[in-house]
Amino acid sequence: MVKQESESANRPDNTAFTQQRLPAWQPILSAGIVIPGFVLIGLAFIGIGVALLVTSRSIQVLELDYTGDGNGSPCSSCSQSTTVNCKCSLNFTLDTLFQGPVFFYYGLSNYFQNYRRYGASKDDNQLYGDLSYFTSPSSSCSPYDYDGSKNPIVPCGSIANSMFNDTFTLTRTVSGKTDSVPLDGKGIAWWTDYNVKYRNPSVTPLKNAFNGTVKPIDWAKPAYELDTSDASNNGFVNQDFLVWMRRAALPNFRKLYRRIDASGDYQNGLPAGNYTIDITYNYPVRVFNGAKKVVFSNVSWMGGKNEFLGIAYLVIGSLCVVMSVVMLIVYAKFKFPDEE
Amino acid sequence: MLRRRLNRWFGGEDRRVDSRTIYVGHRPCPANEVFIPPKFCDNRIVSSKYTVWNFLPKNLFEQFRRIANFYFLIIFLVQVIVDTPTSPVTSGLPLFFVITVTAIKQGYEDWLRHKADNEVNKYRVTVLEDGRRIQKESEKIKVGDVLEVDEDETFPCDLILLQSSRDDGTCFVTTASLDGESNHKTHYTVPDTERDVESLNATIECEQPQPDLYKFVGRMHIYKNNEEPTLRSLGPENLLLKGATLKNTQSICGVAVYTGMETKMALNYQGKSQKRSVVEKSINAFLLVYLCILVSKALVCTTLKYVWQSKPGQDEPWYNEKTLKEKETNRYLNMFTDFLSFMVLFNFIIPVSMYVTVEMQKFLGSFFISWDKDFFDSEIEEGALVNTSDLNEELGQVEYVFTDKTGTLTQNNMEFIECCIDGHQYKYRDASSEVDGFCVTDGPMNTVQQKAGREREELFLRALCLCHTVQVKESTEQGQGQEDGRIDQVDGLMVDGQVVPPLQEQRGFIASSPDEIALVQGAMRYGFTFLGLESKTMKILNRTNDVEMYELLHVLNFDPVRRRMSVIVRSISGETLLFCKGADSSIFPRVKQEEVEKIRMHVERNATDGYRTLCVAYKHLTPEEYDQVDSGLREARLALQDREEKLMAVYNQVETGMNLIGATAVEDRLQEEAAETMEALQGAGIKVWVLTGDKMETAKSTCYACRLFKRNTELLELTVRTLEYPGKRREDRLHDLLLEYHKKTVQDAPPAKTRVARNWSSQDFGFIVDGATLSMVLNSSSENNLHDYKDLFLQICQNCTSVLCCRMAPLQKAQIVKMVKNSKGSPITLSVGDGANDVSMILEAHVGIGIKGKEGRQAVRNSDYAIPKLKHLKKLLLAHGHLYYVRIAHLVQYFFYKNLCFILPQFLYQFFCGCSQQPLYDAAYLTMYNICFTSMPILAYSLFEQHISIEMLLENATLYRQIGKNAMLRWGPFLYWTLLGVFHGLVFFFGVWFLFSNPALQDNGQAFGNWSYGTIVFTILVFTVTLKLALDTRHWTWINHFVIWGSLAFYVFFSFFWGGVIWPFLRQQRLYFVFANMLSSVSAWLVIIVLILLSLLPEILYVVLRKPRGPYARQKKLVQSSAGGIQSPRSSARPLLMRTFSDESSTVS
Question: Where does the record place the P-type ATPase N-terminal domain (chain B) (predicted)?
Answer without folding.
Answer: 38-91
